Amino acid sequence: MMAKDGFISQQAVARTLGRYQVIKRIGRGGMADVWLCEDPRLHRQVAIKTLPAHAPDDVAFTRRFEVEAQAAAALTHPHIVSVHDYGEHSLPNGQVITYIVMPYLPGGSLADRIEALASTKQHMPIEEALTYLAQAADAIDYAHQQGVVHRDIKPGNMLLRDANWLLLSDFGIAHLLSGNDAEVHTGAGFGTPEYMAPEQARGRDVPSSDIYSLAVIAFQIFTGRLPFIAVTTYALSVQHILTPPPSPRQFNPQLPVQLEQAILHALAKKPEERPGSARAFFAELIQAYPELAPRFSAEVPLPTSQPTPHTLPPLNESASLSHAQHATITQPRPRFSGLLPATNKPITRRTALAGGGIAALLLAGGGSAWFLTHQDKPTPKPPVRASTPPPKLNPNGPNLVIRDINIDTISGLAWSPQGNFLTTTPGTSDTIYTWDIEHMRANATPQPGAKFNPKYGSNTLAWSPDGNILALGNTNEEALSDFHTASLDLYARDFAGLASGFQKPIFAKGAGNLSGLTWTHQKYLFSVSYIAGAEDYQHFYLWGLDCNKPGQTTMNATKIKAYIGGGISPSNTLLKASPDGQKIAIACAGGVLVGTASMNGGLPTWQDAPGLLALPENQNYQDILTVSWSPDSSKVAGYYSSNTTALAIWDVGKGIKQTPLTTSLPNKITTLAYGTNGKMPLIATGTPDGQIQLWDTNRFDQPVATLSSDVKKTVQALAWSSDYKWLAASYNDDYATTHIWKMQGRTF
Prior knowledge:
With 748 residues, this protein is of the alpha+beta class. The protein contains 15 helices and 39 strands. Helices cover 18% and strands 29% of the residues. The two termini are 52 Å apart.
């Protein structure tokens, strides 16, 4: 029950945790939250990690927590984050939260440093890399001498006091959350898949597992990438178990042969074939740089008997901490694509290993966790050496990154017309969220402003013109059981319930599925579909609802002679009202149908204005896959696939049919959205490899800018905010990633 109720209960954390005064949440991971707190007794700020809530009579967990917390608190070493205190906090619902009190460290993590270097495509300076590895090796071997195996060695658990001082954190957390008793040394493995030793994937961990993980970090630092990269956790673990590691010099030919041999030695599949200690591994590394060996011979020696207290270097406890640094205190698991690391995220039940000899990777999960990255301002990084240029902010990187660990992909995006509220919807019955973008920027919080879990799924959504109603299509059980009926629900903006006057589902009898939703300024709601079971594809049906008249339970349709474009899916916008709310564009075969739609006596009416805008004759057999309007409602654009991907832009400002501007793009695209940066009209396009390209509508020889992303998966959807200040993109990745760029005033 601990994992199931954990996140719900953590929402109820009061203003205090024990004697500590809670200031704010500063980090969130897959199974823990981190809070910035004030210690009133010692008058200092501390970081408190709270673990998932459990029942007060869960004696087994309480015993494991006591054992692990005491073991972590007993580790006294200059390169291990100290544990100040630990305890339990009772919640109003009767459950109990356990917590661990640690120093408040403002220096970020090794993961931050690696990410900063990757963004500028630089390798870490050799001496800096060896400094971190030496200090980590000291900490690991010291812990092993005390009988403690970390089990989750990774850059996110290596905090930096400054550019020269690393502290290893989270001892005991992995073992505690794996659910194993303290006495048990075999069973479910637990760790981070990218850094997990082969025996951990099989359900066993030994001290040498930490050495393997340290070798993965060394590989990453010296080459700029991980030794194994895969889309799924299963495939990644299979590589760790079966696939020989690649040559580091394959990715960085400048590396000495001795360094490569040392890394590959520590990446041996069998624990007994690796170096006998972390320091022995480091000793092999330093042989590649004999001129630096004297520098590291004076490293802090390991205690040979009972550990003696060490004094940590003084911390600047008054320093401010950015959100990205907050998150490193409970650093979620990193995922890589190519050389650029993505915002980190923990493993989920969806990607847990299953089957064969590696099914022992059991992961406790539950609830949702979001991770938010800010790039409005450069994230403070650890100071660097004078010989190393400081990391620069990527000017084309996203300002905000949202990831949800319990959703497969985000298929739909919709901005509220009033305020910068972004709604994200998955393609299945997972949770729909609305995010207050301005609040998130101001408060560095990844929490959504509202959320809703439709029991039966939704694959299309649209905001009303006043921003008070959110329409969700295809959500009702009765409709889903009848393939000849589609459904619609209208919700209040905060998902507190159905919109006033629309407390019952609305059915479109005859429509197998509603493909897209759009509103006109008259508060009319429209959708399109074919008639389920019919073989007449020369016509489609326009469904309408007059939302000025509460109590309606039926959408009615009018028949229109045209063939809807072939891209019916949640991520493709098949119909779209113009920004001024006067016209609707519908993606069709061979062009775009533009006209005015209204409601008369509960029935939709359609008037061509100017009607079907055709592609050039040699392309008129192509299906338009997505339509989008220019901000001034004078032009409509769509894309289609021929031998390459092509764009078409029609000028509808004069109300007459004109030949479109068409252009073939060098890259295949998956979606588009018309917008502006306030200075020029721009069309944003997404690609199968995760690029967002911006095009000047007057010239298409090359994009005016490419918005960078660490996600190398298909761009599912693009959406500009109603004021065109923001551009959002969702990706077809395992992490339900949504990137958001601030566009107003951006120059190219």
